[in-house]
């Protein structure tokens, strides 16, 4: 399915623009289930767009008309795939410059401009559908910004800056869920179920992968981080499994089993999932599995922290 969407995006852009030119200037990347590489035939297509810019003027390398055509293409692709239109009537669809993902990093404007969400989703659950070179450039620029102090601590670098942003993103998702308490209870229940599986997975698979890497080398280079972040969340955990002890190994296997069940339960339309969530017993069972999923994530991090004192230090930065 992912390959079909990728081909469709490129073909549709080719109907109005020069593909070889555009793919050097702009990237379209998928987030959500497509970004995690676990999409089904009925998954929504969530997309972000990032443009490179002139070195001196910082002007985008995509014109206003090209932006209009690109956004219209995304809407057409959605409809060709018989998927729902973009959320919020398309108000989140816009072209960000790579520098906008960096200049607001750590500042209040980061949230307001939606660059915080775009950057964290780029790092945690993204897949390039168009413009892979620009995608790699954007990822590399973000990682280098988080690793700005690496050269002063290359033998013991712990990416506290990135960890804090991932935790902030996770807690923002949790707060947004709590704030969105209006509407039918079945919708709130479905959102809670997804929050405690797929959303938790993208955040903590990255933290666990970084934590496991720290076990082996007592430091994490930007090159290693880039490889980990480009991987899918489940693959990150698979890589981490090879670096940690037996206790953590077992918990990761448990995590895989629980996530597979989650994917099976949510492989249906939103309407069907909402209908299932109306049953209190069904929702109670879902909550129980969600708690087990979160417990397994915590147990993995605890097991890694037991390895030695330096790993306890990493774990401390997650909590304090």
What this model shows, in words?
With 320 residues, the protein is mainly alpha-helical. It folds into 2 domains: 2-146, no CATH class; 150-319, no CATH class. Helices cover 65% and strands 6% of the residues. The chain has 16 helices and 4 strands. It has helices at 2-14, 19-22, 32-36, 64-80, 100-103, 109-112, 115-124, 132-146, 160-179, 185-217, 222-230, 233-241, 246-265, 270-277, 280-305, 309-319; strands spanning 26-31, 46-51, 95-97, 127-130. The protein has a 4-stranded mixed β-sheet. β2, α4 (64-80) and β3 (95-97) form a beta-alpha-beta unit. α1 (2-14) packs across α4 (64-80) and α10 (185-217) runs parallel beside α12 (233-241). The longest helix is centred in the middle third of the chain and has 33 residues, at 185-217. The model has no long low-confidence stretch (mean pLDDT 91).
In short:
65% of the residues lie in helices and 6% in strands.
Q: Which key features would you list for this structure?
A:
single chain; mainly alpha; 16 helices; globular; four-stranded mixed β-sheet; 320 residues
Outline the fold blueprint.
Blueprint: H1 2-14, H2 19-22, E1 26-31, H3 32-36, E2 46-51, H4 64-80, E3 95-97, H5 100-103, H6 109-112, H7 115-124, E4 127-130, H8 132-146, H9 160-179, H10 185-217, H11 222-230, H12 233-241, H13 246-265, H14 270-277, H15 280-305, H16 309-319
Parallel strand pairs: 2-3
Antiparallel strand pairs: 1-2, 1-4
Helix pairs in contact: 1-4, 8-11, 9-10, 10-12, 10-14, 10-15, 12-13, 13-15, 15-16
